[in-house]
Amino acid sequence: MMDDKKSIEDVLSGLRIDSSARPSQAPVRSFEHLSDEGVLRLYDGIRRQVDADRALGEKYRLVGAAARERAERLRKEIVERGLKFTPIVW
Question: What's the domain of life for this entry (predicted)?
Fold first, then answer.
């Protein structure tokens, strides 16, 4: 039975390999596992942050480059799925 399960060392080794592939950045995660609603909620959350920044006088205190990159990956996923959405106005 133990042969069917990965040892903790195998799991950690795999994580180390994945994270070393992009040492200066966090690993890019896909959104394939999320439902359509989940992807739209994440994208809408970033849109609300952008709107809040705009209300604060366009200083972009809440949204940085990482959020912008994530929004772009979400946007591509939404388009690929053929979902209707309102694009973020940066």
Answer: Bacteria
**DSSP calls for 39-72:** HHHHHHHHHHHHHHHHHTTS--SS--HHHHHHHH
Question: Could you give the dihedral angle defined by the CA atoms of residues 33, 38, 43 and 45, in that order, rounded to the nearest 10 degrees?
Answer: -130
State the pTM of this model.
Answer: 0.65
Distances (CA, A) of 21 to 9, 25, 41, 45, 66: 19, 9, 29, 29, 18
Number of H helices, E strands in the chain: 3, 0
Could you state, in chain order, the average pLDDT of each consecutive group of 10 residues for the chain (90 residues)? 58 55 59 92 94 78 86 96 94
CB 27 within 8 A of CB 19: yes
Q: Write down the residue that tokens 């690929």 correspond to.
A: 80
